[in-house]
Design brief:
By secondary structure, the protein is α+β, with helices and mostly antiparallel strands. The chain contains three helices and three strands. The N and C termini lie far apart (about 35 Å).
Length: about 70
């Protein structure tokens, strides 16, 4: 990872994307959201998230509820 890269938490990403935290955890479980773990906590590189969004992210149609 680059020096000085902005890394955010699940709570911060939830606010940034304006989605519920449970949606983020669902995407992580399915491998559809780029993130990494530090211990038991998820972290996200903001630049990587922005690139993911520009490439379409996870379309709503791909997220049937279980």
């Amino acid at each position: 990872m680059q020096s000085g890269a902005k890394v955010i938490t699940v709570g911060e990403l939830s606010e940034y994307l304006r989605v519920h935290r449970s949606t983020l955890y669902r995407l992580l479980k399915r491998g559809q959201l780029p993130g990494f773990k530090i211990g038991s906590d998820w972290r996200f590189n903001l630049e990587t998230i922005d690139n993911w969004r520009m490439q379409g992210g996870a379309a709503i149609e791909e997220l049937p509820r279980k």
